[in-house]
Amino acid sequence: MKYTTKAGEKSTVKITIKFDGEEWSAAQQSAYLKTRGRFAIDGFRKGKAPKGHIERMYGKGVFYEDALNLLFSENYGPILDKCEKKFTVVGDPDVSVEDLSDDGVTLVAVVPVKPEVKISSYKGMKIRQYAYTVEESEIDAEIERVRDRNARKVPVEGRAAQNGDIANIDFVGTVDGVKFDGGEAQGFDLTLGSGQFIPGFEDQVVGMNIGETKDVNVTFPENYQAENLKGKAAVFAVTLNSLQAKELPEVTDEFIKDATGSESVEAYRAKTRERLQTQADRRSNDATENSILEAIAQNTEVEIPQAMIEREIDSLIQKFEYQLMYQGLKLQDYLEFLKVTMEDFRKNYEDQAKKNVLHQLIISHIIKEEKIEATEEEVDAKIAEQAKSVEKDFEEYKKGMDPRQYDYIRSDIIITKLFNFLKAENEMYTEEETQSKTIAEDKKPAKKKTATKKTAKKDEE
Q1: What's the pLDDT score for residue 449?
Q2: What is the average pLDDT across 400-410?
Q3: Does the reported pTM lie above 0.70?
Q4: Are 323 and 405 found together in one domain?
Q5: Are 232 and 281 part of one and the same domain?
Q6: Pick from 216, 232, 236: nearest CA to 224
């Protein structure tokens, strides 16, 4: 067997594999031994007919396909192993037969490979840095959520529905007089003002009285999930069965202790502020790293093979599928409800997938270019932190670790080093800094104008 590799278009490599007549004949014999049990020939027990008899009965090429598959499967992997320093395959090969005769066979595999990345600059740029801080209003909102979770529901009588009420309703929706899937329910509890239903629906329930039936006219948004309802005008026949109002508890130290375990309102506020700030710091870091990659992407040239994009789409959809599973839903049922095909659903992820792959390629390129690595000492230090957090001995914890945990820790250290390097090598600024500089520029005193010769002469006269 002999092979050659040649760079192709759109980040592909063409692998040409040639087998001589002896190898081709041996492959056909192997195919015969592997598949002869499928053939029944008169005068022979099943699976015992000679190769020549089967070929005369079914044609000379009866074993060609199996023989070709054997030759490719046995040799493709070893070829990739030998070429691992030349290129990295990122998808399945497109295999074809270039030549076939008794003297041998030539197979051609066009494979998508990790593309070459050209970055004109990733240093010395001006890049926005994000810094989110926790506002007191956010802490107030958290306390309101605690109150809401612990609220009592009391029946409402003698007045019309108001925002904040829990309205128990029956409804039947129609478009052009025809009912549609998901547009009907009985005894549904709807918190008015929650925005749970499409715009306009809850506003028209406000003001209804118990026992009243009313036509609610709405229009589905243009970006509504169900294709058949996008932008359509609909009428819902709504009956208000009953109303409940929430009685919120007073915020006292005693209430907070019972509801959250914190000793006082101030203690809970401090704990909440710390938790929210941790989340805000994570958001700040993620947004800043994305900002850095977006800036570098403007200076990057790369031809991304579709195979990499498809693989990333698979990953994004899998994550979404896991989210649905936590809610007790299946992806197929979700698509059927939306009346969307999997093909169209995948298209929704294409832009995000392209962006993700581009960022991954940029990260990989700079790590290699700058020779960024994680030392064993750094990995051990991270492992020691984890062992301490679960109150375990370092050696015992390390011994019980899965190899994938090592890889994750090492990768995390490298990525952290990379972004620290990029932050140091670029001018990072915040919006506040930019505004401050602009205000400072505006406040600078205007330069005094030098008198012109004409004015000077006039003064002289």
Answers
A1: 43
A2: 92
A3: yes
A4: yes
A5: no
A6: 232
